[in-house]
Amino acid sequence: MNPVRKKRMILIGMMVAGVAVAVGFALNAFNQNLMFFYPPSEVLAGAAPKDHPFRIGGLVSNGSVKRIGDGLTVRFDVTDQVKSVAVEYTGILPDLFREGQGIVAHGKLRDDGTFVADEVLAKHDENYMPPEVADSLKTAHEKATGTAVPETAQP
Amino acid sequence: MIPELGQFALILALVLALVQSIFPLVGSLNRTPSWVALARPAAWGQFVFLAIAFAVLTHAFLVDDFSVVYVAQHGNTQLPTIYKFSAVWGAHEGSLLLWVLILGTWTVAVSLFGRHLPDVVLARVLSVMGMISIGFLSFLLFTSNPFERVFPAPLEGGDLNPLLQDFGLAIHPPMLYMGYVGLSVAFAFAISALMGGKLDAAWARWSRPWTLIAWVFLTIGIVLGSWWAYYELGWGGWWFWDPVENASFMPWLAATALIHSLAVTEKRGAFKRWTVLLALTAFSLSLLGTFLVRSGVLTSVHSFAADPARGLFILIFLFIVVGGSLVLYAVRAPDITRGGGFGMLSRESFLLGNNLLLLITTAFVLLGTLAPLLYDAMGWGKISVGFPWFNSMFVIFTPLLVILMGIGPLTRWKQHDPKMLGRTLRWAFVISVVAGIVAALPMLTDSLSAGFAIALSLWLTTTLLLTLQQRFRNKSGFAAIWRDMNGQGGRAYYGMWLAHLGIAVFIIGVTFVTQFDIEKDVRMSPGQEIELSGYVFRFDGTKVHQGPNYRSDLGTVHVSKNGRDVAVLHPEKRTYLVQTMPMTEAGIDAGFTRDIYVSLGEPVGGGDWALRLYYKPFVRWIWLGGLMIAAGGLLAASDKRYRMRLLALDSRTAAASAGKLSTEGRA
Fold first, then answer.
1. Spatial separation of the C-alpha atoms in residues B487 and A7, rounded to whole Å
2. N or C terminus of chain B: which is more exposed, having fewer CB within 10 Å?
């Protein structure tokens, strides 16, 4: 091996080692930051983690939105039209949050089965349905009725 | 009748794109000058027809022609005129039309400013751009026709999404697209060089200014998007790691790597294969971005209710472009000669490090963006990748990049003496480390992150000052600086200087706003006062306000500090009348070292409102840094050596073909 090539190999070796360590850290962090999505039926079936944050999504049940305490905390039900889970959120809701709208909330389950959200997302297009929510509504409906919903019936 | 003209113009543009992509390429291979010569007129013709189509759609919006489905969906008689213009690209079909129009503009620009290029090279570049145009024009015509009609025409249109009725967002897409599409020029140059088998310094010098300008537009587009998200979405954030933001950020990272690697290829003839691969990557990533935005496969604030056929079309197009260019690369790469060698401590090494880090970052952003798709496709569950992960990744890689960024410009090409480098750097090192430690002390910021950020910023600043010192060792006086600036390589250097300083400013902004911002959600009654970070906020209630196409609750918040008035803010809760969509307009008092930001939540009874109050230190520095980066790029692109080549070669070609070119004018 000539000296120039040797030097270059050392350089590359050092870079690869440095990069490998950094990549290791990043991938490890990646696994810890994965956030799973569960529709209400699965949450009630006990599929969702008890002590780890996750996302829940569905439609906001009609007539379920209530302000409690000083008015900053909101309680509502999220449903996949089969089962529903109560969600509590303290703070300001997004503009497009309203009853009947598809939302995704991020947070943790409390012992009493209430989902305590630290973030609620409603999308910026009123016709838009988050794909996860659209999917979970479809599967929930299929399970409930035993029939597949034609694509066109989806909002 | 007029909308049909638009459609007709689009079809003609597609036909010309076919001509532009087939004849010049074939002509360049079998040496038929008349076929090669078709490239330019075809490109011009295509551009003219695209411009007509665009003008027709704009006209339809201005006269509220609701017989056009697209206008009926996104236009409205009450829409203010300026937003009738921006509504043209406010949704899927129109934004694609804008995309191809911009592609046409870049093509024409290349044909104008590239007159000094050898005919065959220019023909191939234009031909590749024609192929891209074919892809997008057929996408437009076959899946997303903006001129589709509906009879009977509705009496009123569905209105533009209120979020888009904003100046920042009116110009955000054109800027971003200029960047995305501009990368196609670098791509076309790379492909044509691969076809010709001639990858040399000349190729790098030709594509460098184009890449720089595309990158500048991309930077501005991203900065505008971030700024818009901050003041318009009403939650005070400036970057959300949203898939669509990532989609614009990945090409930016790759293009940043590309402009640095092009420098090595031009100056030293090294990194040739790598540079070509980067050019292919950057454009492929911008196509991927289009796919992600337009197909609706990802959950994102930008996703529109999408048609799966469209997603499939772009996916196939993406495979053809990526697959085709990689095959060409695989065939040609072995022929590419090796460039000049370099030592371990040399500017090349640092630029290599820069490229490596930027590409790793790109790969991770890609992983985080596509992982949800992968998990879903594999049936592993539905996931999203947390915001903190992206952040922590940047906290790992950016400091490394910044350390290299400080040393790189101080080193020589090929080989640098380690002892000398140590001597040059010691004061910069001492100053930044000491300042960082002092800043982190409890009586100052009491934050390790802030100290670290200050150390990094000072490291960049001091090393940049050192490069200035090196540059002026033998010069003095204002006149010398001015001469230096306008000499060869002068603006490239000052551009680098400004852009790197922009990074230093950006780091301070990001760190300070994430470490020290204060946010409070409160319930306030009219007259009530709340204190936040030394500022006293007094809520003076809301009143109903009537806008041109919306009604709003206009709040008044009085802000004071130590008894002195600071600002009166008017956060607003608008309801747009057509889409009955509520919108929060934040009240912001912008300042150089801090923003005060108030947004209205919802009424909670008895005249009380839920309000969100923010104190955001140094948040402006984020966009200021971004704009400095863009300005630096622009300065570098205007460097004399690109213009010199133009002038020198222009006079030669002009002499050779006197009169023939003069009719085409000189831009």
1. 36
2. N
Dihedral angle sign, alpha carbons of residues B293, B295, B297, B299: positive
Residues of B in contact with A104 (CB under 8 A): 299
A36 contacts B304? CB cut-off 8 A: no
pLDDT tens track for A67-126 = 887 778 899 999 888 889 999 998 888 877 888 888 888 899 998 889 999 888 876 554
Residue whose entry in the numeric block shows the structure tokens 């806008």: B547
The complex's ipTM works out to 0.75
- Residue A106's H or E segment, with its range, is strand A102-109
The answer to whether the CB atoms of B582 and A37 lie below 8 A apart is no
Collapsing DSSP to helix, strand or coil, B21 comes out as helix
Task: Pick from B391, B393, B400 the residue to mutate for testing the A interface (most A CBs within 10 Å).
Answer: B393
Residue of chain A whose Cα is closest to the Cα of B602: A92
What one-letter code names the amino acid at B67? S
Omega within 30 of 0 (cis) for the link into B548 = no
The 8-class DSSP code of residue A78 comes to E
C-beta neighbour count of B544 within 10 angstroms: 8
Looking at every residue in chain A, the average pLDDT score rounds to 78
**B228, B172 in Cβ contact below 8 A?**
yes
DSSP B441: S
CA-based torsion, B368, B372, B377, B380: positive or negative: positive
Q: Which residue has the tokens 């100053």?
A: B431
Instruction: Show residues of chain A in contact with B368, CB under 8 Å.
Output: 30
Task: Name the pTM for this structure.
Answer: 0.89
Quickly tell me which residue has 């569950």 as its tokens. B381
Burial of residue B210, with CB atoms counted within 10 A of its CB: 0-12 exposed, 13-18 middle, 19 or more buried: buried
